[in-house]
């Protein structure tokens, strides 16, 4: 979620919880290998795209056609498992 106020009411306990746990400002991930696969029809697409755009270098993975559902996840799983194994 891009803002605390844009998140569902039960996503975070408070504004402080959002600030502590939101990935929007996750600069500490710069040394962590990261892969992001997200469907362009996913409700999290806009926030995920903004997160990726804010990273110092592009992560593995891609934005491709699909949604936030089992069909998309199954399609992505082989690439994700190969990435984890590398």
**Topology order in helix (H) and strand (E) letters:** HEHEH
The largest sheet is: 2 strands, parallel
Task: Indicate the proportion of strand residues.
Answer: under 5%
The class by helix and strand makeup works out as: mainly alpha
Number of helices: 3
Stretches where pLDDT is under 50 for at least 5 consecutive residues are: none
Radius of gyration: 14 Å
Q: Judging from the principal axes of the Cα atoms, what is the shape?
A: globular
Oligomeric state of the chains in view = single chain
What is the terminal-to-terminal distance?
30 Å
Strand order of the largest sheet: 1-2
Q: In which range does the helix fraction lie?
A: 25-40%
Average pLDDT taken over every residue: 90
The overall strand count is 2
Brief synopsis:
Helix content is 37%, strand content 5%. A two-stranded parallel ribbon has the order 1-2.
What does this structure look like?
It is a single chain. This protein is mainly α. The chain has a domain at about 30-85. It is about 35% helix and about 5% strand. The chain contains 3 helices and 2 strands. The protein has helices at about 15-20, 45-55, 70-85; strands spanning about 40, 65. The chain has a two-stranded parallel ribbon with strand order 1-2. β1 (about 40), α2 and β2 (about 65) form a beta-alpha-beta unit. The longest helix is centred in the last third of the chain and has 16 residues, at about 70-85. The termini are far apart.
């Amino acid at each position: 979620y891009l803002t605390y106020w844009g998140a569902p009411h039960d996503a975070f306990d408070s504004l402080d919880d959002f600030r502590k746990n939101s990935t929007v400002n996750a600069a500490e991930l710069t040394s962590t290998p990261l892969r992001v696969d997200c469907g362009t029809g996913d409700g999290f697409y806009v926030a995920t795209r903004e997160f990726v755009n804010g990273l110092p270098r592009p992560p593995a993975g891609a934005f491709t056609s699909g949604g936030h559902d089992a069909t998309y996840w199954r399609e992505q799983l082989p690439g994700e498992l190969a990435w984890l194994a590398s």
